[in-house]
Design brief:
This protein is an alpha/beta fold. Helices cover 49% and strands 13% of the residues. The longest helix is centred in the first third of the chain and has 26 residues. It starts with a helix and ends with a helix.
Length: 282
């Protein structure tokens, strides 16, 4: 009798375990749109609920390995629905709005996440994602870690360097002006130099000379899109700037610095350290 009872208990345990596995599989029904939102999901330890991402979700590796539904500003309902998604965690920067409305009409739960460019917005993002994934305790733990780094960022000394942020993902490179994530990140890193224009703009040689940057900020992807470091210094006008004459540039992790996700505070601290080193002639 005891042996039979043991077998019954073992079978029940086995079915319980298998039931848990089936539940985990069933819970994998979410597509995440926005690299910042994807990183928050991963930091909360909830990446197992994801079945897809968009092209900006490239970190960490468990996110990058997921199938992509395309670029967040050119979403198609068909791509999302093809993955069997029942929920969409989507950055408020995503487009087109008509696609999101179509997905909602198809029965997909669309959870919109703020897309701000400051630390308050970052903490709102974390809380929104944590609430959607029933991970509020993990969300508060992540916010506490962010707050520690935020305090360090807010205590950074101002810098005098004139920095130029170049965005180059193919085609003609653009430089960052006011009112974008590059502007926000550079100001948080201690820089208070901003060009006259807003957004991102293609500028000619004369404009680059007039901007007179002392150091160029560019991502590895941007540098490769230009054709490498030598191609950077061959850009019209750049050779006549202080940065060009001294060949001074800092390679940044664009997603970490500009995404205003969990890695952004550390990326800002690293940028400040690199800029301070440049100012010191390092």
């Amino acid at each position: 009798m005891k042996r039979l009872q043991c077998r019954v208990v073992a079978v029940l345990l086995l079915f319980g375990l298998l039931g848990g596995v089936r539940f985990a599989w069933a819970a994998a029904d979410t597509v995440v749109i926005g690299g910042d939102v994807a990183e928050i999901v991963a930091e909360l330890g909830r990446a197992e609920v994801l079945v897809g991402r968009d092209d900006t979700g490239v970190y960490p590796a468990e996110i990058a390995l997921l199938p992509s539904v395309g670029y967040l500003r050119r979403l198609s309902a068909e791509s999302v629905l093809s993955l069997g998604a029942r929920r969409l965690l989507v950055s408020d920067a995503a487009q087109p709005r008509e696609t999101l409305a179509q997905l909602e009409a198809s029965g997909v739960e669309v959870v919109r996440i703020d897309a701000g460019q400051d630390f308050d917005a970052l903490e709102r993002k974390v809380r929104q994602v944590a609430t959607a994934l029933d991970a509020k305790a993990q969300g508060e733990e992540l916010i506490a870690r962010i707050d520690e780094q935020r305090a360090r960022v807010e205590g950074l000394a101002p810098l005098d360097a004139r920095a130029l942020f170049i965005l180059g993902h193919g085609g003609a490179p653009m430089v960052a002006g006011r009112g974008n994530s590059a502007d926000a990140a550079m100001r948080l890193a201690g820089l208070d130099w901003r060009p006259e224009f807003s957004g991102y703009k293609r500028v000619g040689g004369e404009a680059l000379v007039a901007l007179a940057p002392e150091v160029v900020l560019i991502s590895r992807i941007g540098l490769e899109a230009l054709g490498g470091e030598e191609a950077l210094w061959r850009m019209p006008g750049i050779g006549m700037t202080p940065a060009g004459r001294e060949r001074r540039y800092i390679e940044i992790d664009e997603q970490a610095l500009l995404g205003f996700g969990p890695r952004t505070p550390a990326a800002i601290l690293a940028l400040h350290a690199a800029l301070a080193d440049e100012e010191a002639g390092g």
